Fold this protein.
Amino acid sequence: MSQGEPYLRVVWTDPETGRHGYVVIDRLVRGISGGGTRVRRGVTLEEVERLARTMTYKNGALNVPSGGAKSGLDCDLSEPGGRDLLVRFVRAMLPLLQSRWATAEDMGVTQEELDSVFEEVGLGLSVYAGLKATGDFDGAMALVRRGLSVKVEGIGLADLIGGYGVAEAAAAALEHLGRPIQGTRAVVQGFGSMGGGTARYLARSGVKVVGAVDVHGCVVNPEGLDVERLLANRTAAGDIERASLPSGTGERPREEWLDIDCEILVPAALGDVLTEANADAVRASVVVEAANIPTTEAAGRRLHERGVVVVPDFVANSAANGWWWSVMMGIVAPTEQAAYEWARATIRRTVRRLLMLSQERKVTPREAAEAIAIENTNALAEEYGTEEPVARAQASV
Ligand SMILES: NC(=O)c1ccc[n+]([C@@H]2O[C@H](COP(=O)([O-])OP(=O)(O)OC[C@H]3O[C@@H](n4cnc5c(N)ncnc54)[C@H](O)[C@@H]3O)[C@@H](O)[C@H]2O)c1
């Protein structure tokens, strides 16, 4: 299959404001695709298209039988009429959401807000199409609802499993390099769902988290931050409360995040934060991409030349997406223990395989991971077809 054109690009114009909304289905497997809804002023079709391709790779890397998709709405939910704009967009996309595209939260919208919009338009859950594709809608819905209700020490499992996977990816990369994890130092940029969860599980595996960066700046401690205390005092937006910082904690401006000495660097906030201009300033030997597309192509090449191992986003941060699908399809039980066992085994195996392949073929880890993901997706499309089973059955009559 050609990796060129996406299967479908939709451009919607809001009749009331003239603003645009986009959906890109990169490809279908089993008649279905999955990918989040980004709500951001200025979002572009090109950005959505790149992210949709990444979702195809993300599913392929973990052998999830679904294609990739993404949507973007040019909107800020805090502006007057923002939520109404999102409701109109979701209503307009109903034909896709009922049959071919399962979505979830992305930047600019919480799952809670999205669920309330889907309730209002009569679809119930944002993953409606995914539930339908399982062939047992009610059973799959019950599993997803149980999974979403699990809390781990005050934080939802759905918000943590992504970060757990990132920490496992870091551990697998260190193992590949023959370095111990105990006492290794890490800096995490972003302290929301991904960054906060990653910091928790890195700290639990013996890593010293020496820097946590949020939109307000860097919080540092060369001896290791008290991650649990920072998590306990985190705002709903994923920001660290400065008023309750433990003693021994220092602060630095946000721009100095690359100056903090560490062996593991985890960008877990924005895209394109590692560029050709700052790639040489990276001190870490391992970069684990928790955010989507945090490293530009040129920076990726430069880091590879310098011997820095970059674990690509669509593997490193794939546990959240993979967990949703695996629970929905009844492959992973909706419990904390089952989620962790699945994520540990799956992420470690995938990272090990892609780093071996990168070495063998003398390509970047991203190129190796893309090759694995494309091979898996093509095999899944072969096994399950690209159209939904009903349509295929009808077509063959
Ligand atoms: N949540 C998921 O399930 C998930 C899954 C895969 C990938 N991702 C990606 O991970 C990234 C973070 O998502 P999230 O859900 O954790 O977001 P979030 O909204 O929960 O947290 C964002 C964090 O980034 C910080 N931040 C914002 N601007 C910053 C800046 N300029 N410098 C430093 N820090 C800044 C915020 O203060 C906050 O701590 C995004 O790229 C997202 O696409 C998220």
Summary: Residues 336-361 form the longest helix (26 residues).
